[in-house]
């Protein structure tokens, strides 16, 4: 583990996680380079801010589920290689129904230099504390489509309200939203704003 980083499950007990890029359930259809364990890693600052967000969410009856935190640069490089490979159709309908692979980068859904790699960005959603069920958000994680944008008009009023709950919680705890992805938040005062790390999640 790099100095200044921690496992989220140790630093913020009680936050749920499902590290999608360590599994076969992601837009590439297989585990991604650099993710050797299904755990979330982030800077100490990220973990502290997520603990605050967890507490704030709980007052509204919600918990947090994290899909990704720190992302090794080699994972980003893996995405770039994948984008150049022939389309096999396995994940297109679920994750990028209206785009070609290369257009993910052109449209800002995947970056060649990712904020995740600096260690203070999280992809997450809300779940209900009373039932454990994920809150409807009008589209799943890594759905690379206009429906995932903040302010999307094709979702229900309840889904839009849920997105606003998440955004309010995160912004109140020091995060900035990314307009193209309702699940993506970066610490405004991140500790390594110019450093892109490449240590393994292991």
Automatic annotation (TrEMBL):
- Keyword Cell division belongs to the record: no
The cofactors named for this UniProt entry are: Zn(2+)
Where along the chain is Zn(2+) bound? Answer: 116, 123, 184
Q: Does the keyword Phosphoprotein apply?
A: no
Reaction(s) catalysed by this chain's protein: D-alanyl-D-alanine + H2O = 2 D-alanine
Cite the active-site annotation. Answer: 181
Alphabetized, the UniProt keywords read: Cell wall biogenesis/degradation, Dipeptidase, Hydrolase, Metal-binding, Metalloprotease, Protease, Zinc
Q: Which residues form a coiled coil?
A: none
Task: List the residue(s) that the UniProt entry marks as the site Transition state stabilizer.
Answer: 71
Q: What SUPFAM superfamilies has UniProt attached to this entry?
A: Hedgehog/DD-peptidase
Question: Which EC number applies?
Answer: 3.4.13.22
Q: How is the cofactor bound?
A: Binds 1 zinc ion per subunit.
HAMAP family xrefs? A_A_dipeptidase (MF_01924)
Q: Which PANTHER family match?
A: D-ALANYL-D-ALANINE DIPEPTIDASE
Q: Tell me the function of this protein.
A: Catalyzes hydrolysis of the D-alanyl-D-alanine dipeptide.
- Alphabetized NCBIfam families for the sequence: dipept_VanX
Spell out the family assignment given in the record's similarity comment: Belongs to the peptidase M15D family.
Protein name in the entry: D-alanyl-D-alanine dipeptidase
